[in-house]
Amino acid sequence: MAVTVETLDKLERKITLSLPVGTIQNEVDSRLKRLARTVKMDGFRPGKVPMNVVAQRYGYSVQYEVMNDKVGEAFAVAANEANLRVAGQPRISEKEGAPEGQLQFDAVFEVYPEVTIKDLSSAEVERVSSQVTEEAIDKTVEILRKQRRSFAQRAMDAAAQDGDRATIDFEGKIDGEPFAGGKAEDFQFLIGDGQMLKEFEEAVRGMKSGESKTFPLNFPADYHGKDVAGKQADFLVTVKKIEAAHLPEVNEAFAKSLGIAESSVESLRADIRKNLERELKFRLISRNKSAVMDALVAQAELDIPKASVQAELERLVEGARADLKQRGVKDADKAPIPEDLFRPQAEKRVRLGLVVAELVRANELQAKPEQVSAHIQELASSYEKPEDVVRWYTGDRRRMAEVEAVVIENNVTDFVLSKAKVNEKALGFDELMGQS
Fold it and tell me: What is this structure's pTM?
């Protein structure tokens, strides 16, 4: 039977569904009979409850269930016959004045849009490159040294300086009144490490063990503690101990302490280079992929289904609630999170997803098994037991789907770069790695 589809808006459609009342009633009766065989009710043996009693107790819920199922089936058949790609769930409403013996419903829904991608040769993409330098390796070595530093107490008359670890007592007051989080005893921090506010560090720098000082401190307006943000406090600080840092020498013993097999400085630097190059590679892939996706979307013309945006909004809000819960926020599941905060992000994701899907379909850029396998092997190569990581990925369909999605994105990136006008740009290692 031909299906009549009414266009309401760019992507919004309406179909009228008709269902025979007899078909609905027959299915209701059938389900009630099956239910009667197992239902338990006071005063009756199992399976011996009279049908009129079963119908009285469960008739409404079974009727509702059957209506939902039958309308859903009818909509699926109608959408398939009309070759419609439905986006989201339809809104179903019963129509008045249906012919005798029939029930009629209006199903209003959205369809996925036609996606037009213009000639990619007119697109411009900036592709960045970078290299691991000896300076980057030196900095990593210094970080490793600091992670393994030891401390020795300075003389009582030694002034605190950058790099020292200070043990202090402090108490802060605002307008003469103590405030939450403004007091601590035997508190340790590294001077010059940025752990404390700049004014606090400057006050402690140059002090000696046993000395006390009172100084003003202005909390920034954007300080994370809202109760004190933008306010001035007076702090009393007492230095109890100053310790000098001692960094280990870069030698064979240092390399051995880091688990380097050959226990040599050369092997240590080679291992650091390998790890930095792996990290750099993924950073470059991410940066260039983002530039490609922006250029791709700019070359596409499409309308966005509201239903898809709404579904993405709900996922983003749910993700935000989960993040709040993980951070220990009380009643995170009830926290008011306005959807509009995420609307631009949701619309961007939906638009990009539709454009990528069209490009993949039109150019057969699906993930090939050998590509998925190679990507998993690369991910696993940085672990001590790569075979365990491979099994972890291949043993879970959801994780495999995530890998396939990454491979598809890489295929799309390579395809667009092969067609677009590419502007090469070299970035310094620190410049690239410092970008989010």
Answer: 0.73
